[in-house]
Amino acid sequence: MHFLLLFSRQGKLRLQKWFTPMSEREKKKIIRDMTSMVLSRQPRSCNFLHWKDLKIIYKRYASLYFCLGVENQENELLALEVIHRYVELLDKYFGNVCELDIIFNFEKAYFILDEFLMAGDVQETSKQIVNRCIESSDMLQEVRRTQNTRCGLPTVVCEHVTCVAWLDFIKKMLFFFVFFCELIVFILKIFACGGETLLKCLLNCNTYNE
């Protein structure tokens, strides 16, 4: 596999996964070509097409198109099964997944994909194992959110409050340091002025005695 793209009927890209290194310019060109070719095809057209030296397999689910780019010698039916299995995993997690689920929870969609595919190959065929990994990740996130929550505030707010508290502490320490330095300078000036006054008194006494 070279890439996996998810885009809407309007050509809006919702998810992209690249399994081979490409430049940003090449990625943008592939996205533009895939959306234009797939969206322009008739509803009853074949789900397989050739593009340059790759074979493109796509499948529409509701308002989303799942587009997979593979080598020419790859099995098209196996690529379709990969797309369908990914959709099943998304349905299992979101419950009848829709385009809004991908938009507002794209990090979960990427996480599910990473548990299912690695480096362009299927690393786990069992839906139960993938679902257990996802549930374990959600539980860890919930535990962390609970531990970091302070006074009923969300985790992000608590982290922000902690940073602000540290900044206030540093500012106070700097203030006391500057105040202490100024106090030392003031004391030294007093001693210096007192020494000059004492020296003048001694000189005046010597002059009077003479």
Structure write-up:
The protein has 210 residues and is of the alpha+beta class. It has helices at 24-39, 76-94, 99-104, 106-116, 127-148, 155-209; strands at residues 3-8, 13-18, 48-51, 54-61, 64-71, 117-118, 121-122. The longest helix is centred in the C-terminal third of the chain and has 55 residues, at 155-209. It has six helices and seven strands. The mean pLDDT is 80. Strands 2-1-5-4-3 form a five-stranded antiparallel sheet, sandwiched between helices. The chain has a two-stranded antiparallel sheet with strand order 6-7. The chain has one domain: 2-Layer Sandwich (Beta-Lactamase).
The CATH architecture category equals 2-Layer Sandwich
Q: What structural class is derived from the secondary structure elements?
A: alpha+beta
Q: Helical proportion?
A: 55-70%
Structurally, the number of domains stands at 1
Rg (CA only): 34 Å
Form type: elongated
CATH topology tier name: Beta-Lactamase
CATH class: Alpha Beta
Strand-residue fraction?
Answer: 15-25%
In summary, what is this structure?
The chain has about 210 residues and is an alpha+beta fold. The protein has helices spanning about 25-40, 75-95, 100-105, 105-115, 125-150, 155-210, and strands spanning about 5-10, 15-20, 50, 55-60, 65-70, 115-120, 120.
How is this fold's topology laid out?
Elements: E1 3-8, E2 13-18, H1 24-39, E3 48-51, E4 54-61, E5 64-71, H2 76-94, H3 99-104, H4 106-116, E6 117-118, E7 121-122, H5 127-148, H6 155-209
Antiparallel strand pairs: 1-2, 1-5, 3-4, 4-5, 6-7
Pfam family, one: Clat_adaptor_s
Transmembrane segments: 174-192
InterPro entries: AP1_sigma, AP_complex_ssu, AP_mu_sigma_su, Clathrin_sm-chain_CS, Longin-like_dom_sf
